[in-house]
Design goal:
This protein has about 325 residues and is α+β, with helices and mostly antiparallel strands. It has 6 helices and 20 strands. A hairpin with a 2-residue loop joins strand 6 and strand 7.
Length: about 325
């Protein structure tokens, strides 16, 4: 997928989305995404940006205009007060990365036999601490929006998926002390800093928000089938288990779903739909498990909900709300 024409901020978001889809949901994570662009017509845009994330929250930011690592959340100000050298150290590191990326872009342009113009070079690294105590981590680079080289921390070697990366692979594989440090960083140092940041941002990062679950239904005129969509809103943390079940078993046939996505207030939302024969409606449930629920939630599909057209049912922490959406009838009940 060519993304060399995309603006810098879009490339950073693309890198984040690719990482999320590759590692799946984790209990807590810390990750850094650095992107550099070589483009004579760049204009007012910074040519280098680094974003640091704890979970899905941007907590630090650096770019080539400010040339300073800066906090993006209020709780990070405590870190600088407790460690006066923190911001200077982080800034000097990013300035070094920025300069290194400038040289890398020129090297790669020649290696790919490309002319001057818009080219992109990205670094993505991070660690995760899962709910069951397991730890994970990744360190990789991308050129022109495609994976260029990836670190395998188990073998202390680099994986080159493209021929142009093989020179880099041989050079980096020979740097045993550096590779050992990368492994140590991902498995120990990164986790230690993640735990520190979690303690500083405890009120927002380790809170629990109960999900609201709404089931909306629609009857298809053409074939008489029904589509039921289960929307899970406003939950935190990100981890959630939501599925359609038939007779208590997970049902995947004729089901569709989106991705867990953030809301503006820092919570998340998710949806999944199913297409069924209305005669079997009573067999299906939308099943939701989350830390904000004292026990798993099963939302049934009630027959009267579709009399006359569309309808929905909403579960909130206080109980149930139901409504049939018809021109003549509008009914809300709270139990």
């Amino acid at each position: 997928m060519a993304v060399s024409f995309a603006p810098l901020w879009l490339l950073v978001l693309l890198a984040i989305a690719q990482w999320e889809s590759s590692v799946g949901a984790s209990s807590h994570s810390m990750k850094y995404f650095s992107t550099s662009i070589s483009d004579p017509s760049q204009g007012e845009q910074p040519h280098f940006v680094t974003l640091g994330y704890v979970d899905d929250q941007v907590f630090v930011h650096y770019d080539s205009h400010s040339q300073k690592m800066q906090p993006r959340v209020s709780w990070m100000e405590k870190v600088g007060k407790d460690n006066p050298q923190y911001w200077d150290r982080e800034t000097q590191r990013e300035r070094g990365v920025e300069e290194g990326f400038r040289v890398d872009l020129e090297t790669l342009r020649h290696r790919y036999n490309q002319s001057e113009g818009l080219h992109t070079w990205q670094q993505m690294l991070g660690c995760e601490l899962r709910g069951d105590g397991r730890k994970g981590g990744f360190w990789q680079y991308g050129y022109e929006g495609r994976t260029f080289i990836t670190f395998d921390k188990e073998t202390l070697t680099w994986v080159a998926p493209v021929p142009q990366a093989q020179i880099t692979q041989r050079k980096w594989d020979a740097l045993s002390p550096q590779n050992q440090y990368f492994k140590s960083y991902l498995e120990e140092i990164c986790i230690e800093w993640l735990e520190k940041y979690l303690s500083y941002g405890n009120e927002t990062l380790q809170r629990t928000e109960t999900p609201n679950v709404m089931v909306s239904s629609r009857k298809e005129v053409a074939d008489g089938m029904e589509t039921h969509t289960c929307r899970v809103e406003g939950f935190y943390p990100r981890d959630i288990d939501a599925s359609w079940r038939r007779d208590g078993e997970v049902w995947l046939e004729e089901t569709f779903h989106g991705s867990v996505a953030p809301n503006a207030d820092g919570t998340y939302h998710y949806w999944l739909s199913i297409r069924i024969d209305p005669k079997e409606r009573s067999r299906y449930r939308c099943h939701v498990e989350h830390d904000g629920l004292q026990e798993p939630l099963d939302v049934a599909l009630k027959s009267e909900r579709l009399q006359g057209g569309e309808g929905w049912a909403l579960w909130q922490a206080g109980g149930w709300w139901e409504r049939n959406l018809t021109p003549a009838v509008s009914r809300c009940e709270h139990s």
